[in-house]
Amino acid sequence: MMAVYKLKTPISEEDVRKLKVNDVLYVTGTIVTARDQAHRRALEFFKQGKPLPLNLEGLAVFHCGPVVSKEGDKWTAVAAGPTTSTRMDLFEDEFIKDFKVRVVIGKGGMGKRTTDAMAKYGAVYGAFTGGAAILAARAIKNVKRVEWLDLGTPEALWVFEVEEFGPLAVAIDSHGNNIFMDVAKTVEANKAKVYQKLGILP
Amino acid sequence: MTSVFKTEKRQDISTRFFHKATHFGGRKTLETAKIVESVAFNILKQAVIFLPNDVKRVLEKAYAEETSDTGKTQLKAILDNIELAEKYQAPVCQDTGTIIFYIKAGAKAKDLDKVEQALINAVKRATKEVPLRPNAVDPFTGKNSGDNTGRNIPYLNWEIVPGDQIEMTVMTKGGGSENVCVGGMIVPGEGINGLKKFVVEAVVKAGAQPCPPNILGIAVGGGADISMKLAKKALLRPLNEPNPDPELAKLEKEIFEAVNMTGIGPMGLGGKTTVLGVRIDYAFRHPASFPAAVAFNCWAARRATARINADGTVEYLTHKLKW
């Protein structure tokens, strides 16, 4: 059955392991955006033994390139929905292992490598509704800081203070379950019906 | 479709820019450029904040009819988000897209040579003031221009029509749905069945990536480039406007019902709402070729249209002007 969880960062491995696919999660605390470029750079830093601008342990990483505005020195997140996570599949298993993030927030799902890493190290994937940028921005109470702005505003590391950020559909849990992979199987099975409806042979 | 037009009076604009216009020696010329810029700014702002009514109605219907719990949660978040965007006058999605204009230029309209620069100016201004996310990146250096302009961007599609009006439509096209657009060649012998397969495979392969529920623009014929252009342009036809060709209307309905049986659902989390609509267009084809294209649009199907009359008055055709 679908349960609703509200977790505060830093999130422990024990707490994150309670979550199961189809649960609904709201996160309060600190979430950090990272897209392709930031993932790549973070992993390079780790290999070179350089510290990241902030410790990500127990935090949520958010696949997002926000619309931001700046007044004086103060940044505001105007619109901040998720970007397609599949692009980060390349990096996420190492990212989870190296930095011990507990929640990965995005849209579109992630593959087997990430699912395995989430099971091994204890993390979940929370699907935020794609395009629901204002719903997300309203939950962002404060832009705490921004790092790596040289990558461009969409690719920088934005550190957000959030309150009940969600609803996140737990779509990959730390027990090897992945809704997107399940849906893909269902879709494959439904194809025969779809072709029949269109009056053609598969 | 709303029938309430807000008319911006040429009077205000000519007063505001009179001084500069005199300075440049050709008042009328500068006026057209300024009107185009101001109207383009307005439709851009309208498009990114307020979804067209036809899209909203179909999303509401989908929410009422969705049977999957997770799918329903997603559609609820979408509807809540649309309302919040309107309330706070902020872009409905943070990916404010690649900016594409479709211009119907009356053959007798004045100063058409000023339109391109005016549109570029409008995009730069909207990027700062709305604001929009800077989404124009040099493919070779990786450098973001920061203002949503660059070589060939915004992209302008020109059409010359009779008359002296200029009608402009803006589409702000999200990257997630763009990434799964496909063009290809069907074996002519397979005909429409080949097209149906092509579409189903595209939707299944796209899965959760293009922010379903999507709108599908489908086109065949012409050539590789022509079919894709027509497919993308087909996305502009409102969801409450049936295809004028009854056979194509039937095919649209058939594909709509079929792909909604895939089970991909809202955001690919499962459910029966995978597409909100299917729009088909075509060109005649070479006997040996059957080009086909599927252009995906996300649920945040942003577009807005306005018409500038020869006397400088403006009609906003898809949205009321709310600022």
Describe the structure.
- The complex is a heterodimer of chains A (202) and B (323).
- With 202 residues, chain A is α/β, with parallel strands linked by helices.
- Chain A has one domain: fumarase.
- Helices cover 32% and strands 30% of the residues of chain A.
- In chain A, strand 4 and strand 5 form a beta hairpin.
- The radius of gyration of chain A is 18 Å and the shape is globular.
- Chain B has 323 residues and is of the alpha+beta class.
- Chain B has two domains: 7-50 and 92-174 and 302-316, no CATH class; 176-297, no CATH class.
- In chain B, 40% of the residues lie in helices and 19% in strands.
- Chain B has helices at residues 10-16, 18-24, 27-49, 53-65, 69-88, 115-129, 175-178, 191-206, 224-234, 246-259; strands spanning 7-8, 98-106, 155-161, 166-173, 182-185, 214-220, 275-282, 291-297, 302-308, 314-316.
- A six-stranded mixed sheet of chain B has the order 1-10-9-4-2-3.
- In chain B, strand 9 and strand 10 form a beta hairpin.
- Chains A and B meet through helix 5, strand 9 and helix 6 of A and helix 5, helix 8 and helix 10 of B.
Provide keyphrases for this structure.
heterodimer; A: 202 residues; alpha/beta; fumarase; 5-stranded mixed barrel; two-stranded antiparallel sheet; 32% helix; globular; B: 323 residues; alpha+beta; 2 domains; 6-stranded mixed beta sheet; 4-stranded mixed beta sheet; 10 helices; 10 strands; disordered N terminus
Topology of helices and strands:
The complex is a heterodimer of chains A (202) and B (323).
Chain A: E1 4-8, H1 13-17, E2 24-33, H2 36-47, E3 60-62, E4 67-71, E5 74-79, H3 89-99, E6 103-106, H4 112-121, E7 124-127, H5 133-139, E8 140-147, E9 157-172, H6 179-197
Parallel strand pairs in A: 1-2, 2-3, 3-6, 6-7
Antiparallel strand pairs in A: 2-9, 4-5, 7-9, 8-9
Helix pairs in contact in A: 2-3, 3-4
Chain B: E1 7-8, H1 10-16, H2 18-24, H3 27-49, H4 53-65, H5 69-88, E2 98-106, H6 115-129, E3 155-161, E4 166-173, H7 175-178, E5 182-185, H8 191-206, E6 214-220, H9 224-234, H10 246-259, E7 275-282, E8 291-297, E9 302-308, E10 314-316
Parallel strand pairs in B: 2-3, 6-7
Antiparallel strand pairs in B: 1-10, 2-4, 4-9, 5-8, 6-8, 9-10
